[in-house]
Amino acid sequence: MTPVRVAAVQLEASQDVEANLASCLRLIDEAAAQGAQLIVLPEFCNHLSFYADRAEAHRIATRPGDGFLSAIAERAARHGAYIKVNVTHAYPDGRTGGTNFMFDPTGAVVGSCDKQTLMGAENDHLDPATEVGPILSTPLGRLGMYACMEGVINEVARGLALRGAQVLLNSLNSFATDEASLHIPVRAAENKVWVVAANKIGPLLPASDLPRISAALGVPAEWLHGAGESQIVAPDGTVVARGPRTGEAVVIADIDPDLADGKLRPDGTDILAARRPELYAPIAAEPRGRRSAVGAPVLPVAVVRGSADEVVRQTARAATAGALLIVVAEADPAALVTALAGTDAHAVTGTSDGAVLLDATGVLGHQLPLHPAGAARDGKLADELLTFDLPWGRLAIIAGDDTIFPEAYRLAALADVDVVASPFTATEAWELDLGLRERAAENRLNVIAAAPLDQPSAILALSGDFTLWTAWQGPFTGRISHPVVTEIPAGEPVGSAAVAPAQAANRLVSRRTDLVDGRPWRLVQALTERQS
Hints:
alpha/beta; Nitrilase/N-carbamoyl-D-aminoacid amidohydrolase; 2 domains; six-stranded mixed β-sheet; 12 helices; globular; hydrolase; hydrolase activity; C-N_Hydrolase_sf
């Protein structure tokens, strides 16, 4: 395919609808002047996402053929470009959506969809989607649309990719800095698609209300501004163009949508074909809330890797020093049992057919691979993800090539797991830096990731600073769901840290927004049914 020039526009919006429209049109013109054929604008371009009540949101929202949408349509026709815009939109039946519209080069609306997962106060004045968004087949490629909070969890982007989208268009209204560093690029890498993401800048709340809301959130007022860093991400997770943290910008890149049709990893695994939808039924089940007891506040853990002798020595040393869970990249289980003698520690190690859990008494469980990926393509597969109740909380083991599947970690969260042990070997750069960090973030899971000695490993712990509208204990850095990372560089045989099993029980990122139970469970058929 001939390269397609795409643009992500970042701008500031206020409560002045006409001024917001003027900003949108001006920056659309700027993007078109640079040759953009596809232009993506941020979320809630028509008005700040702040209303007195549901009635006011409905009254201010756009309507078919109104001045706001008509002006966007006229610009699409004038420039012969596709334009994706997100607004609050009023429906005749009284609903108000956080709605994506796609205008084609004639100015016609060729697709629309509402936001499926709402964030915080959006639940007070908007209605969630009742159906999935379309896949838009265009001369520029197959396009899918989503918005902000839908990209903080995996299901919406995954569903679009499974239904054939090559380019995902994300409109954001976010002050979280971990959008740009984690949630945006991981959706490209884990699905091997392009992502074009446009975020806001400037205050996301009325200036007169900022002090009060800042105090309620426990977040300094200066952080309640759009985080910018709009970006265009390639299917391998590489950010090919990025906007500034502050200030208006038109972020431009030339992309080849056909690159998103290649779903093979270097080992030949097709990352979508290797999925096992028959295992994922719990993702489509009605939320039931967490039922298991809260885990321990603190759990000392360690990662160990190296030669066979070194692994045994370091495992014994870590257990004697107080580590209660030790994750080993690969080792002889019998040797690890001996190394744990006289301690209360548990260990997990990767094996040729999955991974095992053991303590000083012997092997306690064996998790077979869940997916026919990598080395497990021709081997025996598990029929379920096992969980183990230990003195400090609930453990799951997701090992080897299973670690690239977001569905596996979602199943762990739905089983009320607190800690996941992940001995693995990375075949692509994104798998640890984006993939496993996101698995911890989007599911509220502590993850101990142990790779071979020649690769980096990491311990990913949950922070107590997570739920907005509660007192923030440490200095606010803009990160909300990103885990606390203890990096273990390649060549370092041992790494240790403490994780927080108890924090896995708190999945409430903001008022009325639960990362796990807030998944769009009614609309995940693409994940749970085999795609033709």
